[in-house]
Amino acid sequence: MPIATFAVVGHPNKGKSSIVSTLAHDDSVAISSQSGTTTRSTRYQVKTRHSGFQLIDTPGFQRPGKVLRWLQQHADSASRRRQAVAEFVADAGCRQEFPEEVDLLTPIVEGAAILYVVDGSRPYGTEYELEMEILRWTGQPSMALINPIENESHINDWTNALGQFFKTVRVFNPYRARIEEQSALLETFSHLNPEWGDGLRQAIADLALQREQQRKNSALILARLVDDLCNYQFCQKVIDETQARTVEPALQLQYRHWIRMREEQAVKELLANFAHYQTPIKMEDLKLPPDLFDCDKWYAWGLNKKQLLSAAALTGAVAGAGVDLAVAGHTFMLGALCGGLFGLTGAWLGSDKLANRRLLGLPMGGYQACYGPVRHRNFPYVVIGRFLYLYRQISQLNHADRQTLKLSASDFQQQVANLENSQQKALHRACTRLVKQKPVDDLDQLLLALFA
Ligand SMILES: Nc1nc2c(ncn2[C@@H]2O[C@H](COP(=O)(O)OP(=O)(O)OP(=O)(O)O)[C@@H](O)[C@H]2O)c(=O)[nH]1
Ligand SMILES: [Mg+2]
Q1: Do residues 140 and 223 both lie within one domain?
Q2: Of the residues 26, 115, 149, which should be mutated to test ligand 1's pocket, given the most ligand atoms within 8 Å of the CB?
Q3: Ligand that comes closest to the CA of residue 11
Q4: Using CA atoms, how far apart are residues 412 and 427, in angstroms rounded to an integer?
Q5: What is the pTM of this model?
Q6: Best mutation site among 18, 19, 35, 398 for ligand 1, i.e. most ligand atoms within 8 A of its Cβ?
């Protein structure tokens, strides 16, 4: 099957590389506000399961007027124009004098279709007609893309002008276009050359399946994360209880360090799952309220108090589920949820009510002092809530958009509330098992419902 190939061309600094980056899902494409960032044509292969296509990022036109004059001198009739462009790119003198134009026209002469990119936030001007005229001389299939870089003020003018040169004109914002809009654009490309139609349609179908696979992978990454975090404990051999007390701060530090690292690792896996390899994201930079150890603010990320209570009731974890929730929430249940669950070895618990600390006798003599695992009922929900939040940001992040992720409050609680009753129940049952360090079968399948 012939591989569909598209050369993305236009004026410098109009978002050509941005469009390539987003459509190829490739964040290695160089993008910058500096005009002339792309200096050589670069081919990006998009490989899908059964098909694929190619996008060629190109340098912008630099001297279209002079190039058009050269072409006009080498073609005395319309039938010679295509040949004149081929001569232009093969000419050593032209390569010297017009390196950008030779570079950008070469893939087109070799058979690529043309995607001509303009900025819809800047006014139309006749200077662009020189470029469009040169492109028309190549005789290759073509369409125009209006990228509204800052706003959409001049889209109408552009649409009218571009319609004179291109049969198809589309508005496409590489920073904002959602995955459905990207697929719709690829669908438009499939009409440019009938020979490419089947291959491109197959690629579009493959990409949809890939998206679904990414969703499943995300649920799997989360399942491993929440399972690991809920089971983790850090232990050290000690001689007696006095020594255990001295090492406790160190144990706690190690414990927290590992938990943080593990969460960061999951975020990296999530980024890689969506082919974001360069996105600079550090958990400290996220400023997510709260951090994983801020028990008081957990209700913002996990479930709120009322939901936690009804979760407990749903799974039969609380005796007397008929207790008035409002009253319970303010009085004894709060104690039960935020502190009481840790009550194993009173002397060890003191101020920090987050995790277990234990001193276990060892068969060979001496003791083992352990920190963790977290027993707070809300802990798995908090882990899940934070991860889902990041999932939403990352799965919708276009590869051209290199800004830091923008963060706002999570609506995890709403998401849980929207689940079907049976799903809620299964989730609550799983979380109850997790905080008791019991294994949960098919945890990823169960979590998948939250990745809608
Ligand atoms: N906000 C926003 N910025 C955009 C968009 N498209 C491009 N830009 C910005 O416009 C500038 C140029 O983008 P590039 O994709 O590098 O443009 P180019 O046409 O490849 O530029 P050259 O390689 O220099 O010819 C960069 O600063 C981009 O961040 C967009 O849709 N939205
Ligand atoms: Mg570029």
Answers
A1: no
A2: 149
A3: 1
A4: 13
A5: 0.85
A6: 18
- Return the DSSP state at 8: E
Nearest to 391 by CA among 405, 402, 401: 405
- The boundaries of the domain holding residue 222 are 211-451
Whether residue 145 is found in the same domain as residue 215: no
The DSSP line for 133-188 is HHHHHTT--EEEEEE-SS-STTHHHHHHHHHTT-S-EEE--TTT--HHHHHHHHHH
Task: Identify whether 206 is part of a domain.
Answer: no
Q: How far is the CA of 19 from the centre of ligand 2 (A)?
A: 9
Q: What is the pLDDT of residues 269-278, one digit of tens each?
A: 999 999 999 8
Q: Residue 287 Cα, ligand 2 centroid: separation in angstroms?
A: 33
* Inside any domain, residue 273: yes
**Pocket (CB within 6 angstroms of ligand 1):** 12-18, 31-33, 35-38, 60, 147, 149, 173-175
CA-nearest residue, atom 16 of ligand 1: 31
> For the chain, how many structural domains are there in total?
2
User: 305 and 164 in one domain?
Assistant: no
Which tens digit of pLDDT belongs to each residue from 357-385?
A: 666 666 666 778 888 787 777 788 888 88
Q: Is residue 42, in this structure, part of any structural domain at all? A: yes
In a domain? residue 200: no
